[in-house]
Specification:
The protein is mainly alpha-helical and 513 residues long. It is built from 18 helices and 14 strands. The structure holds one RNA strand of 77 nucleotides.
Length: 513
RNA sequence: GGCCCGUUCGUCUAGCGGUUUAGGACAUCUCCCUUUCACGGAGAAGAUCACGGGUUCGAAUCCCGUACGGGUCACCA
């Protein structure tokens, strides 16, 4: 497999929306594939029909699409390749019939066996073990000798049971005492004694394979060269590795990624955290059709896909240089599995916002202007003239992390102040103030309403009346904008124009008397 | 609890035996710019590299133990 084309896969189960941890796993897979000129496939692992959630698969495809990490093959790649690719179907429920023969070869070579124990019987055994002080009963090389399976039952009994249709599962036969070793691309050598891994179910009684079997068989069939997945799979990796050996297949490379942790450090980030933690955990909004609640997504929160992806990439990976702001293409060329860290990473929303700010500044002016105008229209209905909008964008974008910040910071460009900042009123507004702005209003009316001449005019007034900027500036700003914050007041006046400025001054004179 | 994985500033991390008075970024604070707010610039504070033993002339870097954290123990993925 050393010389073959790199092929990786992201294989989520459609049990709900994909959360940011899942997106990161997909991202690392994608980056690795693209870095090596390989393929990134999306396979849906829907062998557990009881946990199937309507709309989840579409959500996964949409979310990856938004991030710009669309699959080259499989689900979501139907527009690129017929049926998603030559290894179709890519939905495990549709591959149901593929697994049988593989299970049979294992049974034939006595590496797997049939087990007739009912779920009820099993839970009773577990319960009894629990009472006896064993909290972790396992179906393994020792206990299987006293269970109802094809190893303990006679051949005719087994045939009889099969004939009458008694449900059974197929379990893998784990060796009694063997070191199972494999090399992990991020952790180095990992070794587990087979004693500690149980006789996992390979084929369920409903005829569908479990993840363990399906994942190994499909990865083989789909020619996957590198299995890159979350650390939660590390404990079952020895089983998967053993399965490759049992089938006599060359093992793919494995890489187990560190988990995304909650900001408080207590456990991994999970779907259930929803918005409880004060930030979205999903890439896109997700409507839960049962509860009719919406969990918020990064896209709708105003994040750029590029910023979101950049931020995710740095949660557990670092190029080893001081560069932090990366485009997708830059991530691809810099990505190396060896630079993935081993420890879990706590998510930090502040840093996420910072990444977005960086990407906002990287945006082509044209695109940013378009986004600004669109959001402006959507939120307030204002449709300003393009050149005018360009100026206001220039004025306000420095202080924004998101496009929506530009809108909220610049509302007074569109609407006369509804109220005046109380602190400034108390501090700066006095009996002289009305005279100042009344005079300014008439002086301004005799000049061009451009920031330059307005400012000149203002300064002339200051020197001729021996006034300081501090006495008059804030008062003017208060009257025009209602607040003391923001960019140059002369630029603001230029943008809102003479009529509006004079109206605001008059209004302030009335309301602040 | 068993097994597995991990542990460098509050957070993400650089570091892969000597170039380290442990570097960067976010957050925090100070100053400058702006008589505003941000942006920007300069700077400060912040990590005895979890702890204890080794190995070595020399360890954040290698080994062992302990502690702590996380993951996982289903006919779920």
């Amino acid at each position: 497999m050393k010389n073959s084309r790199v092929r990786v896969r992201f294989a989520p189960s459609p049990t709900g929306p994909l959360h940011m941890g899942g997106v990161r796993t997909a991202l690392y897979n994608y980056l690795f594939a693209k870095k090596h000129g390989g393929d990134f496939l999306l396979r849906i692992e829907d062998t557990d029909r009881s946990r199937f959630v309507q709309g989840a698969e579409k959500y996964i495809v949409d979310a990856l699409g938004w991030c710009g990490i669309s699959p080259d093959e499989g689900i979501g790649a139907e527009d690129k390749l017929t049926n998603g690719g030559k290894h179709h179907p890519y939905r495990q429920s549709e591959r149901k019939d593929i697994y049988g023969p593989y299970v049979q070869t294992l049974i034939d070579s006595e590496l797997a066996y049939l087990a007739f124990d009912t779920p009820n019987e099993l839970s009773m055994v577990r319960e009894r073990a629990m009472e006896a002080g064993n909290p972790n009963w396992q179906y393994n090389s020792i206990t299987r000798t006293s269970m109802k399976n094809s190893l303990t039952l006679s051949k005719t009994d087994v045939e009889e049971k099969k004939k009458v249709g008694e449900p059974y599962v197929v379990r893998v036969k784990m060796p009694r005492n063997e070191e199972i070793k494999f090399h992990d691309e991020v952790r180095g050598w990992v070794s587990v004694n087979s004693m500690n891994v149980d006789d996992k179910v390979l084929l369920k009684s409903d005829g569908l394979p479990t993840y363990h079997l399906a994942n190994v068989v499909d990865d083989r069939l789909m020619e996957i060269t590198h299995v890159i997945r979350g650390e939660e799979w590390l404990p079952s990796a020895p089983l998967h590795v053993l399965l490759y050996d049992y089938f006599n297949w060359e093992r793919p490379s494995f890489a187990h990624l560190p988990l995304l942790l909650r900001p408080d450090g207590n456990g991994k980030l999970s779907k259930r955290d929803g918005d409880k933690l004060g930030f979205p955990v999903f890439p896109l909004n997700w409507n839960n059709s049962e509860t009719n609640e919406t969990a918020s997504g990064y896209k709708e929160a105003g994040f750029y896909a590029a910023g979101f992806v950049n931020m995710l990439a740095f949660l557990g990976w670092n190029p080893g240089t001081n560069q932090e702001v990366f485009s997708l293409d830059e991530l691809i060329s810099s990505f190396r599995l060896e630079k993935v860290s081993k420890a879990g990473a706590r998510f930090d929303f502040d840093k996420a916002r910072w990444f977005n700010q960086q990407h906002l500044r990287l945006r082509p002016k044209k695109d940013l202007l378009k986004e600004y105008l669109e959001l402006l229209k959507k939120t307030s209905g204002h449709v300003p003239e393009k050149n005018w909008a360009k100026k206001s964008l220039d004025l306000f974008m420095d202080r924004a992390e998101f496009v929506k910040d530009i809108i909220s910071e610049s509302t007074y460009l569109f609407e006369d102040p509804k109220s005046y900042d109380n602190k400034v009123v108390e501090k700066k507004w006095n009996s002289d103030s009305p005279v100042f702005i009344k005079t300014l209003k008439s002086l301004f009316s005799q000049t061009n309403y451009t920031s330059e001449s307005l400012e000149n005019c203002f300064k002339k007034y200051l020197s001729s009346s021996s006034l300081s900027f501090g006495q008059v500036g804030p008062v003017l700003r208060l009257a025009v904008a209602g607040t003391t914050q923001g960019p140059s007041i002369f630029m603001v006046m230029e943008l809102i124009g003479q009529e509006s400025t004079e109206r605001r001054i008059d209004s302030a004179l009335m309301r602040l008397q």
